[in-house]
Design brief:
This protein is α+β, with helices and mostly antiparallel strands and about 150 residues long. Helices cover about 40% and strands about 30% of the residues. α3 links the parallel β3 and β4. The two termini are about 45 Å apart.
Length: about 150
Amino acid sequence: MLGVLPTRDAIRRAQDVGLDLVEVSPNAEPPVCKILDFGKYKYEQQKKAAEAKKKQKTVELKEVKIRPTTEEHDYQVKLRNARRFLEDGNKVKFSMRFRGREMAHQNVGMDVMMRLKEDVSDIGNVDVHPKMEGRQMMMIVSAEST
């Protein structure tokens, strides 16, 4: 700790020891500088950034496609996959495709979506409630934050 110095004195002191004057905190009043090896400082900053990036978890959007006429066993398989995705911390998009005359029975599809919503409510929160987009109904569920 050398205290507050004029810039020229600080640079001269750094050169006397064979090191660099590195501005560590430019927004402070007065700006904070350190006398150290700049190459080593940059290397350490890169290591910190790489470590932070490695610990970062990216959230993916996984899609589970379902039909209004899906039978019970297939429903359970798709539900199990969706629960696994949510437990891994990903978002799940449930999409239901209506074909032909199924469009006349959208209430059946809405019932299936509501059942899915209840079945994953213990580990997920609904981000986008079930809604129709053309011939497709969709709902997005994200993992519950702990």
